[in-house]
Write a structure and sequence with these properties.
The protein is of the alpha/beta class. 25% of the residues lie in helices and 26% in strands. The structure holds flavin-adenine dinucleotide.
């Protein structure tokens, strides 16, 4: 079996989400080919640890900036010369744009949001009905598999195979669209979909200004602040902070839900979190049924107390 993995990296290192995919591919005994785009894609320092045979880097032209069209074109070119059985990526916004295009171009099959995956023998599960259940999914033999896995779902085991792969360049063109400008976001913290710790607030915070309590709590942890739809609809915070069915799907190591009732649409976006802590005055709030730890109490007392504890950890 030959597997192509679309890598995500930051500051010259592979992201954990990518290491999860490399672990799965390594465990299957497959030949591993990788591809990455953007500035630094040819200089990822830890590529040699994973038994990768060949790495393709697209750093110039249309591939220098995020472009699903150009990425599709480039990966298609890699697949034309590598003939891989499986193409793996993390369930990022860009990959959710790129992978279905590839599957259509190559007459393959696409599955997103996997939370469990083994390649040999093939076994995969993904959530269904807003996380109410999970489904075992399969792809027929002989059909090329395009698979996206949610971050933070699989274990990482680094084989430390110390031989750097051969690095080749790849190009790709965007025919219909052109990215003309990328404006920086307003926050320096990680995007919700990448964050390892998320502290989310809901209507229990009573007013927009009280979100400051959550930012204070987040600061010593390096956490990202999220929100329920109720407070987005109230105009307290932007939609980019919304977690849930019509917001972002997140899977951090730690999710702290503050004054959030736990409606099914909210749970749909965060139930894959490893540890869930809920803080709510109502002991019957549905969020407690999904929580690893629950604190029945007033967020206005508990948030400042936790902030002090988190500062002491620093
Ligand atoms: C089609 C559709 C899509 C939707 N998509 C989403 C989505 O993507 N994301 C999402 O979040 N919702 C979504 N919703 C809305 C969802 O159904 C809920 O209305 C929403 O999640 C409720 O937000 P909340 O928990 O902040 O507010 P509430 O349900 O009002 O809950 C507030 C909670 O705060 C607690 N509380 C009150 N005071 C305090 C205090 N002092 N300290 C601690 N706790 C306190 C209360 O006990 C209560 O449990 C969607 C709904 C629909 C119909």
């Amino acid at each position: 079996m030959k597997v192509l993995i679309c890598l995500d990296f930051q500051d010259g290192h592979l992201k954990n989400s990518t290491q999860e995919l490399l672990t799965v591919a390594g465990a299957s005994g497959a030949e591993i080919i990788t591809v990455a785009f953007g500035n630094g894609a040819d200089k990822i320092s830890d590529l040699g640890d994973w038994g990768i045979q060949k790495h393709y880097a697209g750093t110039s032209g249309a591939l220098a900036k995020p472009s699903p069209e150009a990425y599709t074109d480039a990966i298609h070119k890699v697949l034309a010369s590598e003939n891989c059985d499986v193409v793996l990526g993390s369930s990022t916004t860009v990959n959710k744009d790129v992978f279905p295009r590839l599957a259509i171009r190559m007459d393959g099959a696409f599955i997103s949001d996997l939370t469990e995956l083994k390649l040999a023998p093939f076994a995969a599960r993904r959530p269904m009905y807003a996380g109410k259940c999970t489904a075992a999914v399969n792809i027929k033999d002989g059909v090329k598999k395009f698979l996206l896995v949610r971050p933070n779902q699989l274990t990482i085991s680094n084989p430390k195979k110390g031989r750097a792969p051969e690095v080749a360049t790849v190009d790709g063109a965007a025919t219909g669209t052109e990215l003309t400008d990328v404006a920086g976001g307003s926050t320096k913290t990680l995007d919700l979909t990448e964050a390892n710790i998320i502290i989310s607030g809901g209507r229990g915070l009573k007013e927009a200004d009280k979100f400051k309590l959550l930012y204070d709590m987040a600061e010593p942890l390096g956490a990202t602040v999220g929100a329920s739809r109720a407070v987005v609809d109230l105009g307290w915070v932007p939609h980019s902070m919304q977690v849930g069915q019509t917001g972002k799907t997140v899977a951090p190591s730690l999710y702290i839900a503050c004054g959030i009732s736990g409606a099914i649409q909210h749970i749909a976006g965060m139930s894959s979190s490893k540890v869930i802590v809920a803080i709510n005055t109502d002991e019957k709030a549905p969020i407690f049924q999904k929580s690893t730890y629950g604190i029945v109490g007033d967020i206005f007392e508990i948030a400042p107390a936790l902030t002090e504890e988190f500062k002491a950890l620093k």
